[in-house]
Amino acid sequence: MFSIAPRRGWRQVGLSVSLPGNDFRLGSLSMLRLLPLLVLLTGCSSLGYYAQLAGGQWQLLQARQPVAALLADPRQPVELRQRLQHTQAARDFASTRLALPDNRSYRLYADLGRPYVVWNLFATPEFSLEPLTHCFPIAGCVAYRGYFDEQRARGAAALLRVQGLDTEVAGVAAYSTLGWFDDPLLGGMLAWSDERLAGLIFHELAHQRLYLPGDTAFNESFARFVEEEGLRQWRRRHGLPPPAPHLARQREQFVELVLASRARLQQLYAQPLAVEVLREAKQAEFQRLRRDYAVLRDGSWQGDGRFDGWFARPLNNARLLPFGLYEQWVPAFAALFRESGGDWRRFYARVGELAGLAEEERRRALVALQAGTGFAGPPRLD
């Protein structure tokens, strides 16, 4: 299992095994058969860890119901059917207008009776912003571990803190298996706005359209662009106004604050200082981050405290890890979309060319797109 970095509510991508002909009931596959298949894919060394993966995935699969059946059932609450009807309109739009996969993902619904489906555990050394990574055969190496049980996640975090690491445990409201299984809408999602629900569907189906193991910034920036452009087209289609510009700008400024703090910490940790000095300087940096946020909130934001909740909890290195992953290459993909004439299928083919490049060559191509010099495509061999 691996997970994708958060933005306002967090998301998880979990990896399981695809079985020929599986449907939402999972046929006759037993829990005992699912467990070794998960072990094979995850390569985890801890029996307890992959056992909870199998148990959590099994619970999720068993809870799924076809949305079409719920919509046709007059016994279901009207509000539930209205919300599900909206998701299916967005789901249809994703495939017909955005050329995203047309499958059973998000045409199923599962209510687990809890706000989060999984909890992500991030960890870093005390004086480093390099994450503790976990590598998987298909997903590549990622900077977090996912748990279907919150207490297991917090227990694992406590053990890492004893070893001197910084940790962060974050609830994940949405879940995807990159198409290995038919991913359901979850009960907790239906409290979201119509736009956020549509954006989630576009984003997660983009991961199914293309996923590059081991390159989180590439994957998340690509899916983020598809989400944002998809929502722009969705709004135009339905005659909806664009979001308030000041809200997007506030989020940008918040991310900029955190990234600036992270950059200063990286400079600090690179210095040959005594542990006590590093510890004191680290806390001083977190105090500066809080002050900078307060100045911004109470000044140009006119008291809008939409990010107060994030600052209400203790700050450490692990809490800073996810920032920047979703946004890093979004302008590059926007430029590539323009180069593709706004044609989604051509755009996806061009993204596939980028994904096929070696890591450093891919980065140079993204930088060129970001700078406005374009992407000529992979070198020709003839």
From TrEMBL:
Pfam family, one: Aminopep
Recorded superkingdom: Bacteria
Listed InterPro entries: Aminopept
Keywords, sorted A to Z: Aminopeptidase, Hydrolase, Protease
One GO molecular-function entry: aminopeptidase activity
Name this protein carries in UniProt: Predicted aminopeptidase
